Amino acid sequence: MLQTFSRKTSIPTLLGLTLAVSWAAAAQASTPWTVGTAFKAEDGTLAYRELHYPDPDQPGLSSRVEYQDASGRIIVSKSLDFSRSVTAPAIDQVDQRTGTRVFTRHADGRLEAGYQRDAEANLRTDTVRLTPDLVVDAGFDPFVRSQWAQLTAGKAVTASFFVPARLDTINVSIAPVPREECEQASGEVLCLVVKPAGMLRVVGWFVEPLRLAYDLERQRLQMFRGLSNLLDDEGNPQDVVVLFEYDAVPASAAVALTRPAAGS
Hints:
mainly beta
């Protein structure tokens, strides 16, 4: 999810917002333990891949992520440090195409964050108070699992999601929805929708709802649907479906997607 965000923007994550998906770590940090393949929602063609490398000190979490375009060229790189918080990690993400950079780091009980629109722009910084419900970037995934009992009981939860590009937080609602809203996922999953909770403080800032599917048995992310945290090569937002595979098994670009119904 990287340049200055337009009026139509995603919740970065998640995933980040792409998201740090997690379960059993791979044996060596040089081998990705999770591969996410992003397909363009409009036609199912390959948009990019994200390779998650395991954190040797934090089993089930990633220490770095590489985003590759369809040709295999690395376009964005991200490092993550969960040692101070699994839901509000320190991150440093750089877009190799534009020089866009976002980072967070812990200092004196607060979270420092910076955003640089491109290599020629000035670096903007700000701080935010650390709270139990604060979620930063890939910390969304551990947060979901920490709320698993409530979510699987059909109850919605809220979080304060930090958006480095805006140097601000937004309150989001994470709620279980019917299985059919995650039609691109396979098997038994918990389908979630993520959207703003209440009024946004930034006038004109529209945040698209996101849909995520978690494997019910293993509690790991299987599918993400919504606006990506990565812009395309022309600097435009891209609506994607990301399918995740684990234990360093690469996703296939030939996976057939069920196109969402109009208006979904």
